[in-house]
């Protein structure tokens, strides 16, 4: 259960202000059909994070177990700092050249946008940290859904009330806090 809850929390926090969250806003505005967009996000995330967690599990099994908790803690701190750098959809990146409908378009765009993204890297780190691949994949997928489903329904309304800068700083502090907390736990073992 620890792997599931930790994965859910960390990915939900790292997704705040991420380009895939911006992509969810763009797709929601374009299609105005939340159900197929949400299902597309789910399918793309499940496939992408299953692969990422498997890579993490593989790396975790390379005989570097003694260093993995330190590497994971440093990765969490790095990701927390990375959150402070706002993502933006580059000109043309959010454009839809050919329309395949909301589900297919969302699935393809989310899968590609997640490649090398903060949440994918966090999923690799979590896969390396925990022995429970299924809990990590389900947790990271739930974290993505918790961050992106509200963006599909309410994103534009929330950003009118709470500035993205405040949200990004809160997520960064929590992410860095997880990493520092893990380092303290490692030092005091």
Which structural class do the helices and strands define?
mainly alpha
Determine Rg (CA atoms, Å). Answer: 17 Å
Tell me the β content.
under 5%
How many β-strand runs?
Answer: 0
Number of H- or I-type helical stretches? 8
Helix content: over 70%
Largest sheet report: none
Mean pLDDT across every amino acid position: 82
Distance between the termini: 22 Å
Shape: globular
Structure explained in plain terms:
It is built from 8 helices and no strands. With 189 residues, the protein is mainly α. Helix 2 crosses helix 7, helix 3 crosses helix 6 and helix 6 (118-129) packs antiparallel against helix 7 (133-161). The protein is globular. The mean pLDDT is 82.
Give descriptors for this structure:
single chain, 189 residues, mainly alpha, globular
Brief summary:
With 189 residues, the chain is an all-alpha fold. The protein has helices at 2-14, 19-31, 34-60, 68-83, 102-114, 118-129, 133-161, 164-187.
Would you spell out the secondary-structure blueprint of this structure?
Blueprint: H1 2-14, H2 19-31, H3 34-60, H4 68-83, H5 102-114, H6 118-129, H7 133-161, H8 164-187
